[in-house]
Specification:
Barwin-like endoglucanases, 3 domains, 6-stranded mixed barrel, 3-stranded parallel beta sheet, 17 strands, 29% helix, globular
Length: 544
């Protein structure tokens, strides 16, 4: 049992968080580990997403662009250091200060929640707010909770203005969003110009007015951001030059902002108002981006070396060394809000054990009570009966159907990057497949390789059946990264997913319940969507 184990760890990663009641699942796991003393020891504790990144460089990014990176970082450090020292004097963890600073960045309007953007500008309010129709525990509409969260500044509303020009850089909005078919109709009717920067023709690129070719991974120099491959930092290095007209991320942004700056001066437009209401210089955007024209479009390696020169947790490693060796071991957490929740000291040659600051050094936890906190007396948690971890069955999103649809990470692709590569498609069935338990398949007269129709109250999609005894009866599994254009009628499994938002993910004003760039934002649930499956021949030619 967990209680008698020498050390026990529970794996969550990016799974339970995608369930509507995933918060309660994870809280219950953590409660079991806490009751059994499985925190802050080798082999014990939760295995979530052990992210780390280079610490120190982010200060230069948020500093005034008129200064060199080192000077800009010093300015930010001068503002932050007194708060950290004051917190330490009070006996509080520095991670609390860094979290609060990150929350202030979000409140300033620099970051936008993807789910709330899709709610207000993607036509997904009805889907994302559909929980009350299926969740028997909700006493009022999700929209009521959202309006209260926005009014209290617990969450931050995207700009109200109509979206005229939208740049998709590194993402694939029209594939990954739940209800992508509805989002496509609503979003494309609002936006005047859609621009995609990518190295391949994604679903979003296919719908774009302009597609700008991006350099691929082995055509550019860069440093990976937060990575779960701890304890090592990794570079991306250019093995070959970008193909034809393709440009690196740095080159693209240099040329784009230089052009905007030039056109603003030609047209006599000096300022603009950003989404947070601040007046900023349009005729100096490239100056701001390039640190006062210190770096040009060909200077990415110089910029990388400057940023590594600010880093406090790589033992003084610079770009030339990192590029040549291919990795560098983190020497400390450093002052970065991504890293400090690990709450531990790093020892050369040893594995990382999270939480030892709290368990061994007795530094308070970054919660309202300064302890591991399971009782949350936030008004919404009390209203929904979840002040303590509680089990609630997944609501029947999609309708009253007997099967539960869930997704798994693509085996032959990293997300959607190579999902349509012929060489990799040959390693499986070559087209979208759903995995069924043989017993469920037999009862529906479905054979291996048959084309089937998967449907619920929200829509339908077609795929090949793949019978797998490892799939539980009552379960249907599809890999997550198929592009919609790989399905009949360009309708993927996402067209069946409501993506309902759990109101508790909108809660705030309670110490640890706050929005940062990577935490505290609402998610759109996709696990355990209710569906039925039938042979496609039973509904030949018809779509829901």
């Amino acid at each position: 049992t967990v209680a008698r184990a020498r050390a026990a760890s529970l794996l969550t990663q990016s799974n339970f968080s995608k369930y509507y009641h995933g918060l309660e699942m994870e809280r219950a796991q953590l409660l079991v580990l806490a009751l059994c003393g499985h925190f802050g020891r080798k082999g014990a504790g939760p295995s979530v997403f052990p992210a780390m990144t280079i610490a120190g460089a982010s200060a230069a990014i948020v500093a005034p662009g008129s200064l060199p990176p080192k000077a800009g970082a010093a300015v930010i450090g001068a503002k932050v250091l007194p708060r950290i020292l004051a917190a330490k004097w009070r006996g509080e963890p520095e991670e609390t200060v860094l979290r609060d600073l990150a929350a202030e960045e979000c409140a300033s309007g620099r970051y936008v929640s993807g789910v709330l953007f899709e709610w207000f500008h993607g036509g997904l309010e009805q889907l994302y707010g559909s929980a009350p129709a299926s969740d028997p525990y909700l006493p009022r509409p999700t929209g009521d909770y959202l309006r209260e969260a926005l009014a209290r500044r617990w969450q931050h509303r995207p700009a109200r203005a109509r979206q005229r020009v939208f740049f998709e850089v590194g993402g694939n909005l029209l594939r990954r969003a739940r209800g992508h078919d509805r989002l496509r109709r609503a979003f494309l009717s609002e936006v005047d110009t859609l621009v995609t920067l990518d190295w391949r023709m994604s679903s979003t690129a296919l719908a774009s007015d302009y597609v700008l070719p991006a350099a691929a991974w082995y055509e550019k120099d860069d440093i990976t951001w937060a990575t779960p491959l701890v304890p090592f930092a990794h570079p991306t290095t250019a093995a070959v030059r970008p193909y034809r007209e393709a440009k690196t991320d740095w080159e693209f942004h240099c040329e784009l902002l230089a052009t905007i700056e030039r056109r603003a001066r030609e047209r006599g437009i000096k300022t603009f108002t950003d989404r947070s209401g601040r007046t900023r210089r349009l005729d100096q955007v490239y100056r701001e981006f390039s640190f006062g024209y210190r770096f040009g479009e060909r200077d990415a390696p110089v910029v990388l070396d400057e940023l590594l020169g600010l880093t406090t947790n790589l033992g003084g490693t610079r770009w030339g060394q990192l590029k040549k060796r291919g990795f560098a071991r983190y020497s400390a957490l450093g002052l970065d809000f991504i890293n400090t929740p690990n709450a531990t000291d790093l020892t050369p040659g040893d594995t990382i054990t999270a939480g030892t600051w709290h368990t061994e050094k007795k530094i308070p936890w970054p919660t309202l009570t300064r302890r591991i906190q399971f009782y949350v007396d936030h008004p919404w948690f009390l209203e929904l009966g979840e002040e303590l971890p509680a089990h609630k069955d997944p609501p029947p999103f999609g309708g009253d159907y007997p099967l539960a649809l869930t997704t798994q990470h693509a085996r032959w692709s990293i997300h959607a990057s190579w999902r349509d590569a012929p060489e990799l498609l040959r390693l499986d069935r070559g087209e979208p497949v759903v995995r069924l338990n043989p017993r469920d398949a037999r009862s529906r007269a479905i054979g291996d390789g048959d084309m089937v129709r998967v449907y619920n109250d929200l829509g339908a999609f077609f795929a090949r059946a793949k019978l797998a005894p490892s799939i539980q009866p009552g379960q249907v599994v599809i890999e997550h990264a198929w592009e919609p254009y790989q399905f009949v009628g360009h309708r993927s499994h996402q067209s069946l997913v409501a993506g309902a938002v759990n109101p508790l993910q909108l809660a705030g004003g309670y110490e640890q319940l706050c929005v940062t760039p990577v935490t505290g934002q609402p998610g759109s649930a996709d696990r355990a969507t209710r569906v039925e499956v039938e042979p496609a021949r039973a509904r030949a030619g018809r779509q829901h």
